[in-house]
Write the structure tokens for this entry.
Amino acid sequence: MSFFALGVNHQTASVELREQIAFNPEKLSKLLAAQSHDPNLNDLVVVSTCNRTEVYAMSEHADQVLNWLAKVNDLEVKQLENHVYRYENAQAVTHLMRVASGLDSLMLGEPQILGQVKTALSLAKDNATVSKDLNRIFEYAFYAAKRVRSETAVGSHAVSMGYAVAQLALQVFSHAESLTVMIVAAGEMNTLVAKHLAEMGVGKIIICNRTRSRAEALAQELNPRVAVEIIDFQDLSAHLHRADVVSSCTGSLHQVIHVNDVKAALKKRRYQHMLLVDLAVPRDIDPQVEDLDGAYLYGVDDLQTVIEDNLAQRRQAALEAEVMVNQLATQLITQQKVQEAGSSIQQYRAHSERMREQELAHALAKIAKGEDAAEVMQDFAHRLTQKLLHPTSILLRDAAKADDPAHFVFMREHLDETIHKMRKLKPIQN
């Protein structure tokens, strides 16, 4: 039984194709529940996000996995063949570890993918499509991801505007839970900012938007992770003093936060620090705000410089992470081989024990009939030795006959080494 990873992602398939083979939890749950009764393919986990759909499976043939992926999405296999990547055993393990660690993500080092993979495993478990062996591979991948996160800097630097704002807030203010954040305009950029800040654990988010329905839609997305308040756009300056962090991205042609507004807000705050982030082009916030004591003003260019520097640091850290992942994947594969060898050794020992019992019974029967005990024991030792050596002899002969002599050389060298070590053993004391 081999371990396969098969799928498409942002690097191999268009958005249109990824949409065609994407799974929502409800659909996937039903499919997995049905698949659990399939004798040929019932050991699989499906990871489906906006950037990838991947099937991880213990199976005899990768074609079974590909056929299933095409069939459940009403596609012809030919529609997928040129876009699908396939990995088997060690390569599949390495790929899963890279995915879980964020090394294969569109945004290098993004942390959300680990949670998505864990959710995928949990869903597969709920529908009885995860064997002990498959689960062990995933758990080891989670261990690898944890190591990458804790021992490298691959995910420690902000590489998106939203994330950069959130990290900047943490640098200026040490306690996120006490922060009040004002989001000026509930567009795409500020939505990401708000989500990152909510995940960071800020105390409250005030949404200030011209259209109340859009503000309410964002508030719904943020609940119940954080307390949310919606204010009218014309009340912006009146509520400005309540905000520790202000993120503005209106798309207006004119400034919406003036220096006098911030000066008045600082006075009401008794000059407690304010972080103002202007994500708009043209700018929303008067540049003179930068000159005010207690006000920290950052613009798009400031953040972009931080992001570019951080992305370079992530790429450097990713090199270390790749080495770590490869090492951990090798360790897992080695452990699996040792386990498989242990099972084979156990079977061989049981077989040898049965032969010993048979030959011993045969020898004792001869002695009971009055045959010379010394001769019987000599015959017993000879027959047992021949039977025990027979499988090894066959393996050595087959290896010697093979086109590639490397296997035979390996066996011979290690056999010689084992015999040499046995000769060094101390003799048994009577």
